[in-house]
Q: What sequence folds into this?
């Protein structure tokens, strides 16, 4: 039995899942295939509906 | 993003891939390949001196190919981790040519051409799949001529053009203009080279090339081999200068794009491709039109759609505000065809269902609101994880437990199992984290008792 979690994909969904788990004190391995995390959201200029900056 | 890099309970493994998963819920064994970056992650300071000097120029994938990057690169400027990476397919040194310039200029001594992939084994109790989506490739729709008409682009390409850190620093230069500018730049380089060659002859013979060539043509230097070469070089020079001047004249008329058209449901709600609604594309077209108008107040946009789906907190108000304040007109109709008119302007032909007419209109730039498609490599990942996909290729999840995949202990969230926007992806991620936590905390409680 292991108490760690593997998250695959470092877009906004994988980032949020990792942070939530880590905040619960659970150790997370976050695996992302690209050189940096961020996913599509990092490529967006701003996001609806608030027009906040994406990163 | 920064918090992920800093959190003591998160082991960030970027530039890595899952190769194998064995075991069962509560006790999985995962094999991860940490791909060689040829840069030591703990040494690289991200200063970027290496990429300044790298001679290999490539299209920048982060900017959807609209700009360039080098063979040693950072995925994007604020990326986490900020470590640079060498692209092994294009690096000269790694392909047997003499180079290694990046290694020489790196003050941190971080470049390591001998680095190898590393295999890491992990014991985990649960897995969250958040592998996202891919933008639908609209070149599958021949009537829209994406790739044939340079000023027909996708919404994600348009995001990069709008971005202050993008390839045009946020100015809406048209891709056709960018092509001309790139051509001019290449020609200018060649012209400089040829000027240098002519210069040598001019110094040697104390005469300007044009005057010399006049006399040469009149037969003044018959039999003179060296001057013959000069004449050849001069002719070649003119063959560069004339097209360059023509391009320069053309470029004088260039302006930023101010009349925009957005084409909705490109690949979505289309039985040839995806019958579903991708959910977020109506909203991102409105957003992009609003931002474009913020950049240049006279910019106007027409959004062509069957209907505008603004379903979410504050979305309908956003849509109406866009119409009232940001120069957006909503036209009910599906675009039948896009062609190219004079001045490289794309021409949109559509049926206006309110006017009951087929209309053609030209624009400066057309933006395609592409569907949400299953991510690159999704088939392989499904096989590795031993989970099923639905009929569109996304990971299959339950109807009552909507984040559970077909294998116990593996959960999906975000666009990995279907189209959704950021707020929904975030909410689901918290749900998937909770589902995963149930498994691993049960495991630790059992251990404690
Ligand atoms: C043009 C455009 C504009 C948009 N604008 C907005 C907006 O303003 N507001 C909004 O709410 N939504 C917007 N969206 C939608 C938004 O992009 C998505 O909701 C969001 O990015 C989904 O996040 P995700 O983490 O599920 O997927 P992604 O962002 O796709 O992240 C998935 C990550 O997983 C990685 N990955 C994939 N496969 C593997 C693998 N096998 N192993 C390891 N890693 C892997 C990928 O590299 C990527 O980093 C827009 C979409 C588009 C196309
Ligand atoms: S969100 Fe709008 S553009 Fe996207 S598929 Fe649905 S209706 Fe079409």
A:
């Amino acid at each position: 039995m292991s108490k760690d979690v593997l998250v695959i994909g470092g877009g906004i969904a994988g980032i949020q899942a990792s942070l939530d788990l880590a905040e619960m004190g659970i150790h997370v391995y976050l695996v992302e295939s690209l050189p940096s995390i961020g996913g599509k959201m990092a490529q967006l200029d701003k996001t609806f509906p608030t027009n906040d900056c994406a990163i | 993003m920064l918090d992920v890099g800093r959190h003591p309970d998160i082991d960030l493994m970027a530039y890595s891939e899952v190769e194998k998963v064995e075991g069962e819920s509560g006790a999985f064994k995962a094999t991860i390949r940490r791909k060689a970056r040829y840069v030591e992650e703990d040494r690289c300071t991200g200063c970027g001196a290496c990429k300044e000097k790298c001679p290999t120029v490539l299209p920048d994938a982060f900017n959807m190919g609209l700009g360039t990057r080098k063979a040693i690169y950072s995925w994007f400027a604020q990326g986490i981790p900020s470590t640079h990476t060498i692209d092994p397919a294009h690096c000269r040194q790694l392909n047997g040519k003499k180079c290694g310039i990046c290694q020489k200029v790196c003050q941190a001594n971080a470049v390591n051409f001998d680095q190898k992939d590393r295999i890491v084994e992990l014991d985990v109790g649960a897995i969250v799949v958040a592998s996202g989506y891919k933008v639908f490739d609209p070149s599958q729709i021949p009537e829209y001529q994406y790739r044939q008409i340079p000023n027909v682009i996708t919404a994600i390409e348009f995001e990069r053009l709008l971005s202050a850190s993008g390839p045009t620093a946020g100015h809406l230069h048209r891709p056709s203009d960018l092509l001309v500018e790139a051509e001019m730049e290449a020609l200018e380089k060649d012209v400089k080279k040829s000027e240098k060659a002519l210069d040598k002859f001019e110094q040697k013979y104390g005469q300007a090339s044009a005057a010399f060539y006049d006399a040469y043509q009149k037969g003044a230097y018959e039999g003179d081999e060296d001057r013959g070469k000069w004449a050849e070089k001069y002719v070649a020079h003119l063959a560069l200068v004339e097209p360059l001047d023509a391009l320069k004249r053309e470029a004088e008329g260039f302006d930023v794009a101010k009349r925009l058209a957005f084409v909705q449901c490109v690949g979505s709600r289309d039985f040839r491709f995806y019958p579903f609604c991708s959910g977020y594309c109506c909203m991102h077209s409105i957003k992009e039109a609003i931002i474009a108008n913020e950049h240049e107040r006279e910019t106007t946009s027409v959004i062509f759609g069957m209907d505008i789906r603004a379903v979410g907190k504050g979305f309908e108000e956003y849509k109406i505000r866009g119409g009232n304040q940001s120069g957006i007109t909503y036209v009910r109709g599906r675009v039948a065809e896009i062609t190219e008119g004079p001045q490289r302007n794309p021409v949109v032909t559509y049926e206006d269902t309110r006017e009951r007419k087929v209309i053609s209109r030209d624009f400066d730039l057309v933006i395609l609101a592409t569907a949400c498609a299953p991510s690159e490599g999704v088939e392989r990942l499904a096989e590795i994880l031993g989970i099923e996909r639905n009929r569109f290729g996304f990971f299959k999840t339950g109807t009552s437990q909507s984040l559970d995949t077909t294998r116990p202990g593996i959960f999906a969230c975000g666009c990995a199992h279907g189209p959704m926007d950021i707020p929904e992806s975030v909410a689901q991620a918290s749900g998937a984290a909770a589902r995963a936590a149930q498994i691993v905390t049960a495991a630790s409680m059992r251990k404690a008792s």
